[in-house]
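Archive entry. Fields below.
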Amino acid sequence: MVLPPKVSEADFNAAVNEFRAAVGPSWVFTSDEDVALYRDSYSIYCGEPEERVASAAVAPVKVEEVQQVVRTANKYRIPLYPISTGRNLTYGGSAPTMRGSVVVDLKRMNRILEVDEKRAFALIEPGVSYFDLYNYIRERNLKLMLDVPDPGRGSPVGNSLDHGVGYTLAQYRDHFGSHCGMEVVTPEGDLLRTGMGALPNSETWQEFRYGAGPYIDGIFTQSNFGIFTKMGFWLMPMPESYLTGTITVPRYQDFGPLIEEVSYFEDLSLIGMPQYGSPIEGGFFGPPSPDLAALMQKGWPSMDALENYVAAQKRPAWSVDLNFYGPEETVRANWQAAKRRFAQAIPGAAFQDGELLALPIPKEKEATQGDKPRLGIPALEVFTITSRNPMTNSDPADGHADFFA
Amino acid sequence: MKIGATTAAGALVHMSAFGKGPLRSGYERAVFDERFEPCRVFGAEFARAGVPTSAIRGDVAELWYGDLRAALSKRRAPIAGLTNRTALFCLEELARDVGMRVVLRVDHMIEPDARHAVAQLLSRFDSREPRDVSAQKRTGPFSPENRTALVSWVIA
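PREDICTED_STRUCTURE:
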């Protein structure tokens, strides 16, 4: 058994007993095989003596239980490591950052407390996943779109607190930026609500995030200053349509102007997350070109040498996919405006129209729909990248390649 | 088709090293990736044994959030599968919500010819066989040396 640092076995056992009294004996996990569920199989320490493993886990179901767990932890100086779902891969996982911590697993606090279609917000508990919230919205035919990360198995609460992002318009894909109102159990076990939630009987907790006085929400992100029990989010009204367009540019040095023009459209909130590519190498995950390897053999080549190489390939140097959300009239107009501006800024820029999709995507078409996260549909397909090989090579052709430390 | 396999510890073994035993029922579900022939054979064998089966095409999201999570929340019973490593990685992480863990994990090298080998593989799914708790969280979804495409597993 792993003990928290500087905590005696007697004190630890006493704390575990108090945890059991607070949440019920079946929701305190101390056996090796139960605690192992919270291990991080990605950790560079996995299986090593230095591995950061938990001493126990406790799964409260309501705010008062969280408060009692915190008070007990204070009494015995037990370090706590709260997780919402523990699946915001690359941000935060289920394994604690300090060996011997007790994981506070909030998976049972999974209620969707309110989704307001007209005012476009949701109030949820931390154990709610993107899938859960998405299914709730679809089952009720609410005209709202989620902004989801890759992948969608995590919690909006955990993802936003780790500064996660998604794919749609900038004001929604900054997940912390689109939150509005928090309820937090403080390290003393007190309950804190931010923004308008601090005022008794307020009905605008999820609409005006600042309230009165200093804005403190940021101190709870990428930190461990409290345990979240509720959080509000602004949601995007369901756009009528989604249009994609691809722009390619011929020269290596066109990349700078390409980014500048894309940023113009981004900063006007006219497009979602752009996706850049380099067709010169034949697309994602193609084998490296021997010619390019030879070009790089003596260090970074001159710009002339690079441009000559690009020209010889007879393919565009760069590409970018743009995504437009809104009524059909406006997304088509914005794509036309993009064509005009990019053509003016970058000689030789070429354009390929993408498909116009009516939103929401019908349920029966979701399974085969590509680009799910860009359409606000949570998925797990992104993990396919990690098992790609000659046997299982499959869609999608992109995904995360991450390094963990 | 011929299937070699790695144990949970990663050592390569041949399917012939697996002992023979009866395929037992008692599984809540058998999951197979319908894109691959060995998986289809695996699913068919479980279906023949009366075990409900679920076909996936890589992504387990629809399966888990569709009905499997709810079913396991009501009745925590073992599930078995032959999928790619990504699917197992996702299911292992998701299964934590219902307190279940990987207790069998065998990575397979895929080579031509397989029906016979899959039949041998099925002997590992005798529910009387002791399970290895250390099989959980042993690997991520990566395929070692890009050769081990499929993995058979039990989550209980």
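CURATOR_NOTE: The radius of gyration of chain B is 14 Å.
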